[in-house]
């Protein structure tokens, strides 16, 4: 029974890593330069919004910084890497954190212009704020407080929020396929919230489900 559970966990983790790398690569493919960001289907779909020039720079910065963080963040939860090569954990950690810092600040800016009306804008703004806050707590817990357990909990929460980039891209086709909602202005009213709140609840479940082993960092 235990072996089956452990195998299922590894499969799920593998799927997560696959989606994270895939969507990170998608960000680099379509938003690798400011010009490609400008010519992306997503930006062209927002042409009617008469976006300021700065938006294109920020969406480019946002996509490559957050895309990097998403693509490498899962590595941090692999125990073997941490034990055998703590320097890799440190370097990936700082790169990941820089990605979230830039992705979060630019996310705050692009949230102001997001589809989905007021609900979409507030949903993405709240996500960016919680994302930056959990990053701050994750860094503080290890750099200042030297508390590995809390460090792992805050980064579980933080990566669950980073994975909003995955869940959003799962919900958009579901909204189109199941409910016929193809306009982001309609779907983002809900998806701007749905892409991250269940992720955060899942992270809380993982953390509180540690039972007797609550005092150990979460790892694979
Ligand atoms: C978790 C915090 C995040 C916040 C608050 C956030 C916020 C936003 C916002 C507001 C938009 C514009 C939506 C619109 O104008 O309607 C956007 C677009 C985008 N974001 Fe993020 N984002 C986050 C995470 C990520 C991550 C981790 C990635 C990594 C791939 C990412 C990649 C993109 C891309 C590529 C776009 C352009 C739209 C597309 O092609 O799908 N974002 N984001």
List keywords for this structure.
binds protoporphyrin IX containing FE, 220 residues, mainly alpha
Fold and architecture overview:
There is one protein chain. This protein has 220 residues and is an all-alpha fold. It has one domain (2-213). 80% of the residues lie in helices and 0% in strands. The two termini are 18 Å apart. Protoporphyrin IX containing FE binds at residues 23-24, 27, 31, 42, 59, 62-63, 66-67, 69-70, 103, 107, 110-111, 113-115, 124, 127-128, 131, 161-162, 164-165, 184, 188. It comes from Paenibacillus terricola.
Provide the residue-averaged pLDDT: 94
Quaternary: single chain
In the predicted model, the low-confidence regions spanning at least 5 consecutive residues are none
Any ligands, ions or cofactors bound here, and which? Answer: protoporphyrin IX containing FE
Number of domains: 1
Q: What gross morphology would you assign?
A: globular
Give the CA-CA distance, first to last residue: 18 Å
Beta-strand content estimate: under 5%
Number of distinct helices: 11
Computed structural class: mainly alpha
InterPro entries: DUF2306_membrane
Keywords: Membrane, Transmembrane, Transmembrane helix
Protein name: DUF2306 domain-containing protein
Transmembrane segments: 12-34, 54-79, 91-112, 118-139, 159-181, 187-207
